[in-house]
Amino acid sequence: MTRPLEARISASALAHNLAAAKRHAPGARVMAVIKANGYGHGLLRVARALMAADGFAVLTVDEAIALRTHGVTQPILLLEGLFSDPELAAARAHALALVVHSPGQVEALETCGPGAALDVFCKINSGMNRLGFRPEALPGVVERLRGAAAVEHITLMTHFACADEAGGIDVPLGQFWRAAAAYRMPHSLANSAALMSDARTHGDWVRPGIMLYGVSPFAGRTGSELGLRAAMTLVSRVIAIQSVRAGDRVGYGGSFEAPHPMRLGIVACGYADGYPRHSGTGAPVLVDGRRTQLIGRVSMDMLCVDLTALPSAGVGSAVTLWGDGLPVEVVAAAAGTIGYELLCALAPRVSVVDVS
User: Fold this and answer.
1) What is the pTM of this model?
2) Collapsing DSSP states into helix, strand and coil, what is residue 65?
3) What own/partner pairs with CB < 8 Å and gap ≥ 24 does 79-82 have?
4) What's the rounded Cα separation, in Å, for the pair 318 and 298?
5) Which of 67, 68, 133, 305 is the most buried (most CB within 10 A)?
6) 333 — phi, psi (to 5°)?
7) Taking the chain, what is the end-to-end CA distance rounded to the nearest angstrom?
8) Cα separation of 68 and 295, whole Å?
9) Catalytic residue numbers, as ranges
10) Is 85 in a helix, a strand, or coil?
């Protein structure tokens, strides 16, 4: 018997969310961010659903080559750039675009042998202090990139640390423009939060990520509240029923003590499937479309839900862990994390089913 746990991925939801990104930034080209195996949804599956995007952004050369091998002709951007000469050769062979964020990467482009010239996205550190050149270093970097035979076109870019907060882009945006104003070059600034909240960031390329999967980039709001549709719904079934008395303990460590007689359902899903172990009693779950809660600790392969108020539920009842009808943001908040983590943590052993 097949274990009754599957992730249902909706191509139409992905396409809907891409269209939403285009509506928010009508004058910009859309670089769909599909790194981390398409945020857990499947790299190639997501690319097929988002073929109306103007370009794609991934992390590794292998991801980019897989896209090229499967017919993607749009620009493909490597978000951390390159780390070796063989990667540079592969990028030239497959016409990849590169983020350049370190002196070593600039030097590699200056000193490489003859071959195809590449488009580069020169990253300015506008305050996140993760990757990129400080604004005062930009003139020297641009001069070197302009002189490198391996460089075709230069786009200036940055990444915002606090785009999901009110006023969070004001200072970094000012830093970016003070550095970039001297150059007539295209620019790329907006992640999902900036794209949806501030037209000043739209520019030439926007880089939506989490919104494409139907998840809100803003704390306290869900994707559906923003007009987005959940692309992943994680579903399972009740596989056993337990009736417990007042005072009985449930699960590893006995962390939950029943305050009264309860009827519990055991669900085929655990932390080895990607459900967060650090979640606990009170996390929301849908059973037969009705909301109930997680009880006790999440096990490797199973979790427990309260069926006391759902007398019609039993073995075989449908369970939604997150997705359509139960926003992943709400589940993540109950576990003290973010929707990104739950989606990206989906385990390889979970069956994935394509739905419309």
Assistant:
1) 0.96
2) helix
3) 79/33, 79/35, 80/131, 81/105, 82/108
4) 18
5) 305
6) -60, -40
7) 26
8) 46
9) 35, 252
10) helix
Place of tokens 């449930």: 250
CA angle in degrees (0–180, nearest 5) for 106-108-109:
65
Average pLDDT, integer, range 73-88: 96
Q: Which two tokens stand for residue 308?
A: 């006391």
- The owner of tokens 């939801």 is 13
Q: Name 98's bridge partners.
A: 78, 120
pLDDT of residue 1: 59
- Ordered DSSP codes for 188-209: E---HHHHHH-GGG-SSEE---
What pLDDT is recorded for position 2? 87
Percent of the chain's residues with pLDDT above 90 = 98
Which residue type does 226 have? L
Q: Pick the closest to residue 14 from 49, 44, 38 (CA basis).
A: 49
| d(C-alpha 193, C-alpha 340), whole Å | 13
SS3 36: helix
Q: Are strands 351-355 and 6-10 parallel, antiparallel or unpaired?
A: parallel
CA distances from 242 to 56, 132, 262, 280, 296 (A): 48, 55, 8, 18, 13
Does residue 227 have a pLDDT over 70? Answer: yes
Reported as half-sphere exposure (CB side, CA atoms, 13 A), residue 58 has a value of 25
Sequence letter at residue 251? G
Say if CB 339 and CB 328 are below 8 A apart.
yes
Q: Using an 8 Å Cβ cutoff, are 288 and 310 in contact?
A: yes
The string of pLDDT tens digits covering residues 149-174 is 999 999 999 999 999 999 999 999 99
pLDDT averaged over every residue in the chain: 97
Element (H, E) at 266: strand 262-267
8 A C-beta contact, residue 274 and residue 347: yes
CATH classification for the domain delimited by 232-355, as one of 3.40.120.10, 3.30.479.30, 2.40.37.10, 2.40.10.10: 2.40.37.10
The answer to whether residue 74 scores a pLDDT higher than 70 is yes
Break the chain into its structural domains and give their ranges: 11-217, 232-355
